[in-house]
Write a structure and sequence with these properties.
Helix content: 25-40%
Low-confidence stretches: none
CATH class of the largest domain: Alpha Beta
CATH topology of the largest domain: Rossmann fold
Number of domains: 2
Largest sheet: 7 strands, mixed
Radius of gyration: 23 Å
Number of helices: 12
CATH architecture of the largest domain: 3-Layer(aba) Sandwich
Strand order of the largest sheet: 11-10-9-12-13-15-14
CATH superfamily of the largest domain: Vaccinia Virus protein VP39
Order of helices and strands: EEEHEHHEHEHEEHEHEHEEHEHHEHE
Number of strands: 15
Distance between the termini: 42 Å
Mean pLDDT: 93
Amino acid sequence: MTLVCDTATASISWKERGEVRSARWRSESGTPPPKRVVVGDDTITADAAYRFACEGTAILWRGDFQNARQLLQALARRVDRKPRKKPAATPASAAEAFHLYRQAQSQRARTLGMLLLPFESDHTIPLRRAPDVRDACTQVYDAAEERYVASMRELLGIIGAHEWRKKGIEIPAAGGRIHPHYGVFAPVRNEYVALVAAAPLPSTALAFDIGTGTGVLAAVLARRGVERVVATERDPRALACARDNIARLRLDKKVEVVEADLFPPGRAPLVVCNPPWIPARATSPMEQTVYDSEGRMLRGFLGGVAAHLAPDGEAWLVLSDIAEHLGLRTRDELVAAIDEAGLNIVDRTDARPNHPKASDPDDPLHDARAAEVTSLWRLKLR
């Protein structure tokens, strides 16, 4: 079981220069603060740091910032180093291979998360050659009122997300750029957007976009001529992100972003949903855009859409079949869930994604990624 930490109250303690010190602990992944912390600087070797990290001892960095980046890269190389001996046995199934992959990724994240940085109350980093990360950290952590400690790996993710948010992603079907916020799934895979942009609209009067995320599909529907789109979200970051994008695209007169767990009130002639594709437990809040334990959102959408679909309307389910290739769900189970919801399958349009990892035979999930197909299922009430 993964422990999720309340970062509003968590603190971290360590001994430095003979004194016990403490600071607030921040972790957007919900990771608890490490129990053991040593102070490290430019004199520590990568091998020594790796031993500490593998033992669960964190290193609070007091040296040069750029040297800390190099140390993190050295730790990653050691984590990713192929074992000298081959595994005793190959996984018995695709599902077992997936779970082993998840365990390895979780262990990798824990190990690399052991390199820590100090932050001042204004988000500055009191280290030599440290970049100005105040804007990036403010977007994620909001205003800081006290000094805190966070992992360098998380900071690099925050910096990367800040750059994505600044430059955005060009989505021609949405009429411009979509700017993803930290923790909101970025529309870098365009096949599902293209499916929604091409499917025949049953009506242009009203559409619901369930779990809108960045707002990209709501924007696509509005650009296609749907007069009113109600986009729902329950995650505060996604709500802010979708509203920001809709305003940037000047679609706020056509698209309303509302807080809701799945459906808004009423019925619509078109209800669209692109749920998380992999029915597995998310090990952190940041993974919930991809992993959804037992397919909660998918089941919730199928179980509730009949009560929110206008007569002769259509429900569009946008879903990858990667879960089927991973042995986590069968096609028969999906079709049965559609049938139990009182829905008929009108049509299905498929698109093959272009995965960089699909051509990498060393990727543990290569076979599933190479075979993956994303589909738009057009569903109607029986």
